[in-house]
Amino acid sequence: MPYAITGALLLCILYVTFLVWHYNVSQQDDKKEEKSITARYEESWKQWLISKRTVVNSLQIPKRPVDEKGMPLPFPDPLIAVAFGEDLENIKFKESLTSHDMALLRMYPWFLQRFSFQSDKPAQTSLVWNDLPPYIREAEMEACLSHIQNFLSASIAWNLLKAESRPVPAPKVLFWMRNQAIYLLRNGYYQEGFAFLKELVPYLSAKDPEFDAWLGSATIMQAQTTENGLEKIRFVEEGMKILEKALIKGERNLSCLYIRAQTYLSLPEFYQKQHEQGVKDIEFLVRAVESEQTFFYTNQELLQEKTKIDSLYLKEIIEWALSSKNISPSLKRSLEKLLKQLLVVSQNGSKGGQ
Q1: Residue 287 burial by Cβ neighbours in a 10 Å radius (0-12, 13-18, 19+)
Q2: Are 247 and 260 in contact (CB under 8 A)?
Q3: Is 295 helix (H, G, I), strand (E, B) or coil?
Q4: CB neighbour list of residue 65: distance below 8 Å, 6 or more residues apart
Q5: Are 237 and 271 in contact (CB under 8 A)?
Q6: Residue-by-residue DSSP string for 242-266
Q7: DSSP strand pairing (306-308 vs 294-296)
Q8: Which of 195, 270, 295, 312 is the most buried (most CB within 10 A)?
Q9: Angstrom distance (rounded) from CA 140 to CA 137
Q10: DSSP code for 323
Q11: Interhelix angle for 254-265 vs 229-249, to 10°?
Q12: DSSP alpha helix (H) spans, 163-228
């Protein structure tokens, strides 16, 4: 009986702590800087899509967000420019548009006519693959090489994936779809990105350890979407199991270490063991920068090109962790040392390249 009481008390403590953590995260989000330009355009587009489907005589194009002086914000990419009524011939991106970008832009009007909005999913519609116009099916192989990433492009990729009776997507198409899902996760669309990744599981989980690492991270992120403390605990524990298995399967692939480090350092303060692991991963990655170590992003047929650690992105992760209120002072001191070490290495590398 005493053990049962102790267990119940521990669960209550975890429950309350998670509620406090959730509240603090919400408060921190409120105090963050203004949303990015892309996020503001995405929000305007989503609200317009909802009104277009529910309000008679709604605007024919979304309303452009403006700055504090009432001036329209600059378009962040060509797809958003076109979605907000800009003439393709006049947009400033015209000279830099690739054939891959153009393929994606050609898809947009067709999908837009059919899109509806659901709060926890990308914009969606019901499609049968063989009923798609041939130019849409053919454009997929071109569009998947575009570097455009936003809620709109993710919605197009999502619907192509979910089209009924579609053939297995080509490896480069799957990689594009995976990256669109990751964009959603990185930009606060936790439920939408998670839903997207789950649809990709049959195609990628057996092939791509980095995919599984993102799936584990996305599972942990779901703790921020519920008020239920026990659900929060379940999401975190389940996500950690998926993430750790991905590290084993990927033989400590460096891209997986990126994901684990950032994910674990984002956990509440009582996940001290995971914070320590995150700092160890950062230390390993900094050493990889020093030794100019190369690595493959995946172990199988996807993106078999060697690359080096992105020191700028690693610097952003460390600075982000240092700003967190959940990391202990001792671990922050370790991170500060690693940041200084990384800056020295990066400066020496840039001098060597001159």
Answers
A1: middle
A2: yes
A3: strand
A4: 37, 40, 41, 43, 44, 72, 73
A5: no
A6: HHHHHHHHTTS-HHHHHHHHHHHHT
A7: antiparallel
A8: 195
A9: 6
A10: T
A11: 160
A12: 171-186, 190-204, 209-221
Question: What's the token pair of residue 166?
Answer: 């579609």
3-class DSSP state of 84: coil
Q: What is the dihedral of CA 221, 224, 227, 231, to 10 degrees?
A: 20
- Residue 150 and residue 41: Cα distance in Å, rounded? 10
> Exposure of 216 by Cβ count < 10 A (0-12 exposed, 13-18 middle, 19+ buried)?
buried
Q: Are 190 and 214 in contact (CB under 8 A)?
A: no
pTM of the shown model: 0.85
Q: What is the pLDDT of residues 274-290, one digit of tens each?
A: 999 999 999 999 999 99
Q: Taking Cα atoms as reference points, which of 160, 249, 258 lies closest to residue 206?
A: 249
Nearest to 88 by CA among 44, 150, 113, 77: 77
Cα first-last separation, the chain: 70
Q: Which residues of 302-323 are buried (b: 16+ CB within 10 A; e: fewer)?
A: bbeeeeebebeebbebbeebbe
The string of pLDDT tens digits covering residues 56-90 is: 556 788 999 999 999 999 999 999 999 999 887 77
Q: Dig out the tokens for 45 from the structure.
A: 């587009």
Amino acid present at 144: C
Tell me how many degrees the CA angle 66-70-72 measures, rounded to the nearest 5: 40
Q: How far is CA 337 from the centre of its chain?
A: 28
Closest CA to 232 of 2, 33, 11, 61: 11
3-class DSSP state of 293: coil
Closest CA to 84 of 57, 47, 114: 47
